[in-house]
Specification:
With about 250 residues, the protein is mainly alpha-helical. The protein contains 12 helices and 4 strands; from the N terminus they run αβαβαβααβααααααα.
Length: about 250
């Protein structure tokens, strides 16, 4: 565990310097992923680390409070930017209904507004944007393209969600954050594991095997149910485009 922690710290320092930056910005949500990233950013960059807490109209006030309290507890610089007006304006001009598709449209819009703000702050402070998506999310494509998946560098992008919990406990992330149900907080009642259909504990066990290039036949032999395998493999396949750079025509 300690070696992994040291690698994260070295990665942040090395990769930011390589790009000519000694300041960073990132979004702090009140969830475990951004808290872990916040811990490391604060440790490595100290006063050169800036966290931005961006609640929307749908955000759970507790998450905002948790983000603020966490930042205060470790001496991390933070700003709160209410993006509710952007959300309300988008809902108004887009004639949204309260069905599942439109809720996800709003969620995607919110994620992209947050990233637009982070890149504006990046320009303002000559700072690098740090990502907070874990490996499980990236493999599944569970995120918004050019939203929460956008960043300059990502210190936890090779760490499964279940490992994030272990690291969080090791570095002393508060229990009120660790015990929280995983959620991107994009709309009221949204839950990662409800959207995905399975717990991260179950998903990560399968993702480890998929990442080792095991065939469906071998996965079945290992005891994974066919429906579960196909559901996760299809999600990975359908969202693979999110991890690719835009294709440029050869002319």
């Amino acid at each position: 565990m300690q070696k992994k922690i040291e690698k994260i710290e070295k990665f942040l320092l090395k990769e930011s310097k390589k790009r000519g930056f000694n300041s960073i910005v990132f979004g702090l949500s009140g969830g475990i992923d951004s808290a872990v990233v916040g811990y490391f950013c604060n440790k490595v960059f100290k006063k050169k680390a800036r966290a931005f807490i961006m609640p929307s109209t749908f955000s759970n006030p507790k998450n905002t409070d948790d983000a603020i309290n966490f930042a205060k507890s470790i001496g991390l610089y933070y700003e709160v930017i209410d993006i509710g007006k952007f959300q309300d304006d988008f809902a108004s001009i887009s004639h949204l209904k309260e069905d599942s598709k439109d809720l996800h449209r709003i969620g995607n819009f919110i994620a992209r507004i947050r990233m637009a703000i982070l890149y504006d702050k990046s320009y303002l402070h000559n700072a690098l944007v740090i990502g907070t998506s874990n490996k499980s999310e990236l493999m599944l494509g569970y995120g918004t393209l050019y939203g929460d998946m956008a960043c300059a560098i990502n210190p936890i992008g090779n760490i499964y969600k279940s490992e994030i919990f272990e690291i969080a406990k090791h570095i002393g992330i508060p229990k009120y954050i660790i015990d929280k149900k995983p959620s991107a907080d994009l709309f009221e009642g949204q839950s990662d594991e409800y959207d995905l259909g399975y717990s991260y504990e179950m998903i990560d066990k399968l993702l480890v095997q998929i990442d080792s290039n095991l065939s469906k036949k071998h996965l079945l032999k290992k005891g994974f149910e066919r429906e579960f395998i196909e559901s996760i493999q299809n999600r990975i396949k359908n969202n693979r485009f999110k991890s690719k750079m835009p294709k440029i025509a050869k002319v």
